[in-house]
Amino acid sequence: MADVFITADNILSPIGVTTADNFERLKAGKTGVRKHYNKLLADEPFYASLFDGNEAILKGNTHYTKFERLIIASITDALKQYPCNLAHRTALIICSTKGNISLLETGDNTPVLKQRISLSASAKLIADHFGFTSQPLVISNACISGLMGIITGKRLILSGEYDNVVITGADEISKFILSGFGSFQAISSGPCKPFDIGRDGITLGEGAATMILSAHQNSGDDVKVTGGAVSNDANHISAPSRTGEELKQAITKSLAEANLGNTDIDFISAHGTATVYNDEMEAKAITLANMRHIPLNSLKGYYGHTLGAAGLIESIIAIQSLKQNIMIPSLGFEETGTTDSLNICTELLSGHYQNCLKTASGFGGCNAAVIFSKK
Amino acid sequence: MKQTNYITSSCIISNHTVYKNGTVLFSEQAATDVPGFLNAVYKTRDINYARYYKMDNLNKLGWLASEILLSGGFDKTKYRPEDIGVILSNRNSSLDTDQRYLKSVADGASPSLFVYTLPNIVTGEICIRNHFKGEDAFFIAEDFDADFITNYVGKLLDDDVLQACICGWVELLGKEYKAALFLIEKVKTGDATLFTKEKVTKIFENKKPLQDVFIAGVGVITAMGNNVAECLSSFERGEAGMADITHLDTVHAGKLPVAEVKMTNVELADKNGMDVGMSRTTLLSLTAAKEALKDAAIPRIETLRVGFVSANTVGGMDKSEDFFIDFITDNSKGKLKNVFDHECGSMTEVVANQLGIKDYMTTISTACSSSANAIFYGARLIRNDVVDIVVAGGADALTKFTLNGFNTLMILDKEFCKPFDENRRGLNLGEGAGYVVLVSEKVMKTLNRPAYCKLSGYNNSNDAYHQTASSPEGTGSYLAMKGALNKAGLTTSDIDYINLHGTGTPNNDNAEGTAVKRLFDPHYPPMSSTKSFTGHTLGASGGIEAVFSVLAIKHGLIYPNLRFETRMHEFSFEPETRFKKGQAISHVMSNSFGFGGNCSSLIFSKI
Amino acid sequence: MKIYIRSAACISPQKTLHQDDLLTNPVEYNDTRLKAIEPDYSAYLDPKLTRRMSHVIKMGVGTAMECLRNGEITMPGAVITGTAYGCLEDTVTFLTRMIDMNEEMLPPTAFIQSTHNTVAAQIALMLKCHSYNNTFVHKGISFESALLDGIMLLNEGEADNVLVGGTDEMTDASYTILKRLGLYKRFPGSNLSLFKTNSTGTIGGEGAAFVLLSDKASAVNLAELTGMQNFYKPKGIDDIEARIVAFLKTHNLGMANVDLVITGKNGDLKNDAGYDQLANTIFNNCAIANYKHLCGEYPTSSAFAFWMAANIVKNGKVPASVLEAGAENIRPKTILIYNHYLNLYHSLMLVSTC
């Protein structure tokens, strides 16, 4: 199978505005999560990783919404690293769970507004901003949207139809989203604690990320996407699988595609939302896949759950880990809290990393796994 | 590896109707709202699935469509659960529920509502119900993208990521909704169709086939005869209508032959009980349109919606010419009566008033293809249920304006024209009118005698090459003929006779011949240009030649192309030179091409 | 199926080509003939091509190009025009020369460009557009016929992005003749006080307006074309009322749902009598706007009204210059255009927010 290279990437988060910024600050243990009192978003104080609103990119020109500006800023940085011909054999994939939904909270509920909210309207604006000539693709697959974007992008390159695929994702934390997760009693009381015995729910976060996949290598240390698969639990629309069997299936399929065995994986970047059920299911799946000994982290303690962007942000950090041979500790973890214990990374690790696994699971029973490899 | 995949089942739910594999399974037009309709569909399923009542409307719609899609024959045990996937798309994501969720937030957010604010729950519900564990994905797009879905799902199957896949579109926002699901498998079952973009689009669009339009009557007046019977007998005798100019007061009289209608304005006005001051275009139009309507003899026509779509290019120019002689010397001079009906639309209006038609009327003017366009516009009015009957065609009188205009272009033959001959030198102008009476299928069934034929195909395409000249490749003509064949669902071998545009100018016949060659080579049907009898009647020609085409089917005729001697060196075919009767003629193509690159082809077919 | 107005453009006696300030500062004329304000066409058309084009061809082609540009569409799926008079200037030129020169030694250009479909043909030629191309020439419903053709094409799934326009030009000859026929006022006054003149006759105008119709929802769409209908020779004002009510009903609407009526009042007492009667009956609770004082009367002026309605719906405000009755600050969601031509041809068009 032909190679698919990651030739550029960007993370735009409350922690930093480039991939390098983010990785450096994660290494220093910096988190974006803090307590917020914002009546516009929620009646009670809550923990989240949010932009403070004073960022330059969020000001000025009101033509674009916050969601679109985040994406535009993120893509702009990625394209600086790998300027490709957007008018020729280059696709754009946008991943988001709720896009511009916050407009519904403030605007008149008119047909024009409905049109403006739609993800395809944003996609067109973004595509036109940069001059993409192919029809942008929009993926809205709950919390696996970002990984689904990478898997789809890889397929578009392998189909031979495109040379480059720009995959971008973002979500904005609004009253809509906070109230929804709140209604599930799924929001943590403090900063979230993935896989920990004391975990009590997710911490939300906002951010954007972009990854450019290419059929051609940009520099010698480009990491490749070597495998990816998606599965469904067929069990419950809002609760994860009881067995973890389906996520394991996705992991197995992606390993097979990458032509790797479970022992070839050097570390795992898990979904680890810090809800009781998700982390339990993931631990089961990783155990079923015979990978519980492999060092594993969840980055939700730094970024919170960034929804449509999560898969991309966390993949990009994993890619940096491969490049720098440094693994970021799982913030918030102290004591094993899953039936099957995992090898959770609690301090900066270094090693000779070749391959890593990234997973995600979401509402609707969807699971995704992606493999990144060096050389 | 690209393999062949099949659509083994399809389900469309829209407009309060459920379609399975293209046929209506259930329709509930009485349902007051969308949830009421969906519940009615659920009841027909005769199952008890408790989850159904928990779902939001988008999920109910998608789930019901999947139930119907998979019903009757799909054996999921053939596959492992992880080999069946669900790939869906829509325009407005979960906006319908998003709005309702947001409203509910004030009274305490509901988790059971919030979960449905993710569009991919639709795929989740289908997976839960059927225990499908393969890949599922949800894409948002402004419109259903058949191209993307066929490529994407095709690739998942080809790469063995999946062995079977449900894919399609599930959209619902307020009162607007549509579900279109396809089951794609690698193995062909009973009435499976190929999984291609075209098939998917066709199933998705789920269009009611447009109703057929029939020809119930014809009327014509040309230099070769004042009505249908006279024209037919001139064809049989091989007698052309060209002669020296007699009616027109012009310096070109005696120098340029033309095909004038033999009746004078006084005779035409008398015959129709009209004022002799009328434009000759109006008088010709009325004569032929009346004949057509009388010929059709539609029972109880007063209870039906009748339209008149007429074409012309000169309007009341014959009278305006008189007016301008005085007007240009002194702007306060000239009889206003002569210019009052200058507009093309006036001809149509006067004739419609005489025929008692007022439900719909309009006028088309696209140079020499005008009345072919009028005929198929008329047919489309019936197909779109605007009217039940349309008298359609066109008229043009010979005027000094057109005679001099064509003369400046140096395309008038000083002898009688020789269409499609190697030594052709140009056209002869003519005048006349030709109309057909188009009726809906419903009206056709009430006729006292069989309809002549049906209008099965039509197309207008533009040459986009030059304001007056045709492209050397005959692009517009080629696209028009090909488009008409596609519309009729016919191939070139089905055509039994082509009534060519064949003006006799070097440029037209070359471009048209090239287009015919591109489309028909090496099997050419008989063809001829009846302009060798009628001259080029401009805005009337499409109508007149449509009448001849209809008569060709009715009587099994092929008309001769008079004065043809030498085959054009560019082509391996030549026009028919003898009048033939008793031919088996099922499909006739009639070509009309005009200035501005305006190219139209009509196809008439035996019923 | 819904039909959307994706974009629109207009050249008229007002500054309409750029729509930033929709008719807020109307141009005043003290004449009974309003001439279109022509832009610098070199921004739209190749000067080599326009050199030989007549006034109406330039107006038509220029407006069509601007409409496509507004709609961000490079290639329309069909081109349909409506024009009552066609290419008058070229027609009169050829006719005059023919008489003056006694049918000898005539140059062909004017004849070539005199055919009624020249505007549609030139658009096709310029775009290399091989799609459906048609031209309707039926007096006061030429534009409406073109619009119906466009609607049917979309219904039939034959084409998308259908470019539909109405064009007519006024020449010295046609102005003189129509004036002699009694169409225009005997004494010129300000067009902005046209409806206060209390006399017969109107003011002549000209212009071109194009719209791009699509059945695809899009953020750029201006408005929805909810419906249209023509009727011929109604029996009287009661019949007109009944037909308007029935037309609205076919779209599940009543007058209560109409936020603004745009009428075809033209300042001629006889012409306007019907509109005034309706203002006291079915239109009495509705805001009313007029437009012919801005563009003048001509057979395809309803295309101007249609362009205006689409922009009003999109902008969410009614320009004070067109409002006859009702509050200025309304945001019309549904607009009914009612126009008649010589009391013979009546047309109804419904434009609403999408």
Automatic annotation (TrEMBL), chain A:
A single Gene Ontology CC term: cytosol
Pfam families: ketoacyl-synt, Ketoacyl-synt_C
Keyword Transcription regulation among record annotations: no
InterPro entries assigned to the protein according to its UniProt record, in alphabetical order: Beta-ketoacyl_synthase (IPR000794), Ketoacyl_synth_C (IPR014031), Ketoacyl_synth_N (IPR014030), PKS_Beta-ketoAc_synthase_dom (IPR020841), Thiolase-like (IPR016039), Thiolase_acyl_enz_int_AS (IPR020615)
UniProt name for this protein: Beta-ketoacyl synthase
UniProt domain Ketosynthase family 3 (KS3): residue ranges: 1-374
One GO process term, biological-process aspect: fatty acid biosynthetic process
Keywords on record: Transferase
GO MF annotation, one: 3-oxoacyl-[acyl-carrier-protein] synthase activity
Keyword Transferase applies: yes
Family from the record: Belongs to the thiolase-like superfamily. Beta-ketoacyl-ACP synthases family.
Domain of life: Bacteria
